[in-house]
């Protein structure tokens, strides 16, 4: 929904599945806004940002790398760096885990876990500086990437990057200290549990009792 807040011609998006873009325009964005804002889309599956022939101030990967294998994330960061302005920023979120997930190139609806050392290695490999930020997400952790370290927020700025969601009980942990502590404990326990045990818990949670 960033299209609403950007000037005409300043939104560019990559999505391999064209039908998802068309469905989003039909059910959420609307053709009127598309005519006004004139966004550009490309439907490649290689994160090829060069198709737009320009450099970007900001590149956002929301809930992308949490479903992508190591090789896809590596390609995406390299391509994004090549299309990033010298003082530009990449914002991306990851699912943090004790170890790195193995598997196919795309994983959905389950998440692909990365430990923070691996994310740092991906940034180094792409020639990018990186910092984690406390911006709230119920399951994922946000990171900023940039070409120059001075462009990253310093530690005193991080307290303003929380993304708290007010007046919605579903997101109390975004600002309530008590709920934040509970979330952190829950996440730490999740890191310690074997994958087989976590899979069994997910199945129990998804189980629905039959209606009589």
What does this structure look like?
By secondary structure, the chain is an alpha/beta fold. The chain contains 7 helices and 7 strands. Strand 6 (about 130-135) and strand 7 (about 140-145) form a beta hairpin. It is globular, with a radius of gyration of 19 Å. The protein starts with 11 loop residues before the first strand and ends in a 6-residue tail after the last helix. The model has no long low-confidence stretch (mean pLDDT about 85).
- One letter per element, helices H and strands E, the order comes to EHHEEHEEHEEHHH
DSSP helical segment count: 7
Summarize model confidence as the mean pLDDT. Answer: 87
Number of strands: 7
CATH topology of the largest domain: Rossmann fold
Radius of gyration: 19 Å
Low-confidence stretches: none
Layout of helices and strands, plus pairs?
Elements: E1 12-14, H1 18-29, H2 31-37, E2 40-42, E3 56-61, H3 70-82, E4 84-96, E5 113-114, H4 116-126, E6 129-133, E7 141-146, H5 155-158, H6 177-192, H7 195-206
Parallel strand pairs: 1-2, 3-4, 4-5
Antiparallel strand pairs: 4-7, 6-7
């Amino acid at each position: 929904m960033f299209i609403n807040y950007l000037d005409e011609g300043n939104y560019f998006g990559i999505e391999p599945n064209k039908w998802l873009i068309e469905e989003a325009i039909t059910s959420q964005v609307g053709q009127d806004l598309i005519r006004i804002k004139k966004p550009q889309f490309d439907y490649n599956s290689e994160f090829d940002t060069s198709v737009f022939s320009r450099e970007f101030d900001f590149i956002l990967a929301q809930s992308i790398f949490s479903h992508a294998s190591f090789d896809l994330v590596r390609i995406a960061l390299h391509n994004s760096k090549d299309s990033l302005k010298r003082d530009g920023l990449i914002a991306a979120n990851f699912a943090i885990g004790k170890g790195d997930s193995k598997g196919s190139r795309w994983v959905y609806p389950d998440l692909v876990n990365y430990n923070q050392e691996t994310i740092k290695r991906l940034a180094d490999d792409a020639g990018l500086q990186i910092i984690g930020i406390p911006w709230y997400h119920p399951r994922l952790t946000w990171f900023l990437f940039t070409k120059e370290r001075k462009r990253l927020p310093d530690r005193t700025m991080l307290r303003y990057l929380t993304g708290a969601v007010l007046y919605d009980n579903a997101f109390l942990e975004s600002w309530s200290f008590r709920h934040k502590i509970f979330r952190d404990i829950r996440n730490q326990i999740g890191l310690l549990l074997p994958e087989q045990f976590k899979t069994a818990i997910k199945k129990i949670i998804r189980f629905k009792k039959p209606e009589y």
